[in-house]
Amino acid sequence: MEIHYLTAHQLKDRLEKRQISCTEIVEGVYLRIEEVGDRLNSYIRLEKESALSRAGEVDKLISAGSDIEDFMGIPIAIKDNICTKNITTTCASRILENYIPIYNATVIDRLESRNYILAGKANMDEFAMGSSNENSYFGTVKNPWDTDRVPGGSSGGPAVCVAAGEAVCSLGSDTGGSIRQPASLCGVVGFKPTYGMVSRYGLVAFASSLDQIGPLTRDVEDCAAMLNIICGYDRKDSTSINVEVPDYKSFLKADIKDMRIGVPKELMVEGIDREVKEAVYRIIKLVEDMGGIVEEISLPSLEYALSVYYIIAPSEASSNLSRFDGVRYGYRNVEAGALREMYRRSRAEGFGDEVKRRIMIGTYCLSAGYYDAYYEKAQRVRTLVINDFKKAFEKFDVLISPTSPTTAFKIGEKMEDPLTMYLSDICTIPVNLAGLPAISIPAGLSGSKLPIGLQIIGNVLREDNVLKVAYSLEKAIGFTGRPGL
Amino acid sequence: MERISKDDVKHVAELAELEFNEKDIEKITSQLDRILDHVANVSSVNTEGIPPTSHILDIKNVFREDMAEKSVTQESALKNAPDEANDGFKVPKID
Fold first, then answer.
1. CA of A304, closest CA in chain B: separation in Å?
2. Does A307 sit within 8 Å of B42, measured CB to CB?
3. pLDDT at A41 over 60
4. pTM for the whole thing?
5. Dist CA B12 CA B7 (whole Å)
6. How many of the other CB atoms lie within 10 Å of CB of A35?
7. ipTM field
8. Which pLDDT tens digit goes with each residue over A150-180?
9. How many CB pairs under 8 A join A and B?
């Protein structure tokens, strides 16, 4: 197989056997980027020169006899809302077009300590707001399975890089499904860890109580290996959880005998494509064949999850994004003669339509007279969502559902109607509200050869169950599809 | 029923330090109206005795020792400044 479609663990194996050099890996990936990059638009910025020079250094370390650790010398794409020191970090927004962070996000420090290689900064929906990657100041990202279709969002770039061979794996962020939904639409693995397991330090905040960084990879094994690196306590993030980090790779066992698996009926309702439902039913059969116990369950509050999310996330965003005022960094309108005029014109010109829309929704929901009816009420209903999940996990080890109600939709199809776009995240949003870990794995292809994703949800800090079921099903499903480009 | 009027939108834009032209106000008013109408269904949920979520885990305030540490230099803090003067951020006159 071509170098650019190997997994990180396959590459590690070849590096260990001296069958390949790190320089060859980086060259292979960049050859692929040059071949398909213009058609996909998955990167905002490439780091070819520094990647090749880092690769040379890693090759020297290896020939000097250094142990080869996971992701050493592996080219990784980083979503452009994760701060990289001295390398532009734009959030796909005009307002941060020229922003150069003076520090690394904690996840980047952790990867650097493992000698990873930054392939480039990946495209995304502006400030991670969107489900189609059409909201980028740097242009729409295309789905490699069909370039007339969206890759999903907001981590569209990170998902496409992995699906099309433009990076071995990537880091994205997930606020309402932004890792899992594009992973589903592009046919790769995407994981959102338990809230607090991965430091958010250096992740440009969208909705602080929901945001979480996580990996997008070609298989579950790479996913577990990446969790080993990025999970763990960080004093720079006050919501970081101080618990022992397990060896996530130790959960990669293909055995789900007697595991209890729930299917929330609220996530299998109207609006879910027939083919997507059928894929889930096929998997339920697989689970039963492997000795797992599957039962339907009702989580009645999920009916309100989308509403809760579209009150809470924009509210937090409106507060977080108030820092972009043209004073300390970012775009400034230089014609404004007075301060408030400068704020307004900088923000009006710097932010795109969807970002402004969410700032408006959030500001409204937090404003005098509406706070109780919207924001506070939503936080109460959020407690009900959390309680429903708690109850479900008394009975089940994991819950499964479709990741996305549909396969990849056409570019432009939902841009005129924000509410329809928001419905794309109906299966993933409840997970963020409750801070749970969840993965999307490829479940097969639709009749028109588009990937379908399966979501596996675990209880808080039960990444072990999620990985165990994901690994077992990955083996049983045997998805080997590749986009034909 | 209209949940949000054009005047409300203008008021919210002012609170959010954003500005829209008349045509955009029209469009965003109808979009916000539709979104708010959808999310307002939370009002039908009985939440009596249910506390609002503050954190998904049982985490309380996090404190650390108040110790002075090395921080960013003035030079790097100003690196991304759109305008600066006398080692500070420079802004237009405050109105």
1. 6
2. yes
3. yes
4. 0.97
5. 9
6. 14
7. 0.96
8. 999 999 999 999 999 999 999 999 999 999 9
9. 172
Per-residue model confidence as pLDDT tens digits over B31-76: 999 999 999 999 999 999 999 998 888 777 788 889 998 989 999 9
Is A178 designated active site? yes
Element (H, E) at B15: helix B6-15
- Exposure string for A445-475, b = 16+ CB within 10 A, e = fewer: bbeeebbbbbbbbbbbbbbbbbbbbbbbbbe
E-strand stretches of A395-464? 398-402, 438-445, 451-458
Nearest CB to A383: which of B51, B77, B83? Answer: B51
CATH homologous superfamily of A3-260+395-477 equals: Amidase signature (AS) domain (3.90.1300.10)
Q: Give the pair of three-digit tokens for residue A287.
A: 């689970």
Report how far residue A7's alpha carbon sits from residue A422's, in angstroms, rounded to the nearest whole number. 32
**Contacts with A310 from chain B: Cβ below 8 Å:** 35, 38-39
Among A12, A21, A42, A79, the one annotated catalytic: A79
Neighbouring C-beta atoms of residue A293, cutoff 10 Å: 15
Sheet with A293-297, side-by-side order of all strands:
A43-46, A117-122, A75-79, A169-174, A212-217, A189-192, A438-445, A451-458, A398-402, A260-264, A293-297
**Domain locations along chain A:** 3-260+395-477
Residues in chain B: 95
